[in-house]
Amino acid sequence: LLIPHTRYTLHINFLARKRLISKDGLFTQFSASGGEGMLTILRRSLSSMTYSSLCMPEDIAERGLKDVPNFYYRDDGLRLWDIINRFVRGVLSYYYKNDLEVQQDSELQKWVLDIFEHGFLSHPCPGIPQKLTTVDSLIKFVTMVIFTGSAQHAAVNSGQFDYDGWMPNTPVSLQLPPPTIKGKATEETMLKTLPDVNTTVQIMATLWVLTQQSSDFVSMQKSVYFMLSNVLYFQI
Description:
Layout: H1 3-6, H2 9-19, H3 26-30, H4 34-48, H5 56-62, H6 72-95, H7 99-103, H8 106-119, H9 135-157, H10 160-164, H11 187-193, H12 197-210, H13 220-235
């Protein structure tokens, strides 16, 4: 069920640790935070993470965004969450007939605990499960994993170069402090403040690579067909 959505995950994460966030990685060399600042940001992010923030329906509700007009991220995202959730429910309900079967599946429980220990570093993030006790909780967890690796990742990753390719939109660093008084900035001060050409080129090239689809990219629709064919094969 998860294979189509975790393809290349280990590979790309290894490359990210080696080339982006390592001691001599691109973010360490060129971002304003530097390596130590980046670790501080990551620690703060992990400390504020909750299980509900990874589950879109709950996240939207908790942030008070249910009734915001023309919010296409929410509208499209909730539709995709529902589609994935219904598909996952159909597959897992076939293999797990009741809650006891979930509780007695030792490999499943070890999988969830491994994610808690190594994915969330055993941090007591509110709601992050260390074990699964019901079919519904399993369906929700797997839906979250698939949604995060597909729709959510595409939403926050795939448009990076489209927006950040125009460097003034999101300069990765500044050579001078940003202006604090309106009307004082000039073209000359802006050019002195924005990052130099080398920094800009390095970050733009990185963003371009990060937003490229793999040569054998498979859309979610085809992934569903792939999963269905496997389910039918094993049933037969």
